[in-house]
Design a protein that fits this description.
about 260 residues; ORF3; COQ10_START
Amino acid sequence: MNFRTGLAVGAAGLLAAHAAGRAARRITGRVVARYEAKLDRSVRRLTVRAENGGPMVKAALAGARALYDGKSAARAVLSAGWTALKETLKRLFGGGGGRGKMTNIVEQIDVGAPCRLVYDQWTRFEDFPSFMKKVESVVQESDEKLNWQAKIFWSRRSWRSTIVEQVPDRHIAWRSQAAKGRVDGTVSFHELAPDLTRVLLVLEYRPGGLFERTGNLWRAQGRRVRLELKHFRRHVMSRALTAPEGVEGWRGEIHDGEVVRAS
């Protein structure tokens, strides 16, 4: 093959390669265009569904948007997974700044002591930290106002409670205020025998922070109440019952949040 022939063959090869490249780019362009159009339709369809959809629908939308924005498949999967986690946590813990779902806690315990002694010991609120594990401090501002501090997991929570109803040897009802979670409730005292008293505790627990909502989900607060009641019984049986003259309770009466009869 002479020089001219070789040059012609080379030029023809370059032209063929260039034409093949253009054809490949056109095919690729059409494939990409179809893919983008399909992805655009998917994003629009998922956006409509996600307005009322669950975590997985919103996760799929996040992944599709990531691909549509040119991110890699790995980044798209990561985005979808993170969205699914966030949406699931929202549903479990009441996302969007809303308050957690209220939980009713009902517990009772029988204490082998006279009703009056059990009631008097309960009204000594500032003694609670000495025998209850999670109550760290109680400051009684007045007959009906108390400030509490307790440990929730590894965090501390404070709240203020107001006694709205109190009748000696019968019941105490209160309402509370707190930044994160609150507990309203009633404790009543029932004489089963001269030396046997049933303590019935009914609580309305509204979790506020993440720890409280997590505990509420796993019903940890109900278990905590049961344990604290056992601590109360042990204290009455081992301390108050052995020296009842030292247990001086508050014998006043409260109705509608007002003291109507002092101790």
